[in-house]
Amino acid sequence: MENNHRNTGSLVVGALLVVFGALALLGQIFEGLNFWGMLWPLFIVGVGAMFFVGMFAGGRSVSGLAIPGSIITAIGLMLFLQNLFNHFESWSYGWTIILMSVGLGIFIMGWYGEDASQRASGMRVMKIGAILFVIFGIFFESIFNSWSFSRFIFPVALILVGGYLVLSRAGILPNQKKMEEPASVDSSQPQQ
Predict the structure, then answer these.
(1) Are residues 76 and 123 in the same domain?
(2) Which residues of 19-46 are buried (b: 16+ CB within 10 A; e: fewer)?
(3) Which of 39, 53, 110, 174 could form a Cys-Cys staple with 119, CB 3.0–4.6 A?
(4) How would residue 36 be classed by pLDDT, with cut points 50, 70 and 90?
């Protein structure tokens, strides 16, 4: 068993060394491009991915590693996008991504650990984070007005919220309460 963990660790470290070496080589070949300056947040994504590797290598008993893995990976991806688009003002509402990533981690933990209540809890936390992301995103993007399409954010948000309400009330979207209620077994009926 210990040999298997050593092999997994060697595989991951070896793959990371290959990726870093390739980036260093590309940086030498294309001297005008700053690969390290653009791609440094992917190191953080890699650290988050290591938690998922540990979760899958350790089995269901360490499914809780999905939570820090989700948080760190989400922060790395957010930093990568901010770095790519030079839009660091988004931290004013981007912190809600951390809340969503906690919910995603709880959901993944419930999925991997086969616990329906954790999956439902994770979905609730993700929804709260998404709602806060939209609210604060609209508010702060309208203040900063840093992107040319920011004038479209509020109308699009109204359309999305209205569409969600229409679709959920019409029964087209699945109802969260129906997903959470376990199927009751009628004891008067014989089991087949």
Answers:
(1) yes
(2) eeeeeeeeeeeeeeeeeeeebebbebbb
(3) 110
(4) confident
Residue type, 39: L
Tell me if 23 is assigned to some domain. no
Do 147 and 139 form a contact (C-beta atoms < 8 A)? no
pLDDT, tens digit (0-9, with 9 covering 90-100), for 76-109 = 999 998 888 888 888 888 899 999 999 999 999 9
d(CA 149, CA 157): 13
171 and 101 housed in the same domain:
no
Domain extent, residue 155, equals 145-175
Residue 22 in domain = no
Cα–Cα separations (whole angstroms), residue 58 to 3, 93, 157? 13, 35, 42
Q: What is the pTM of this model?
A: 0.66
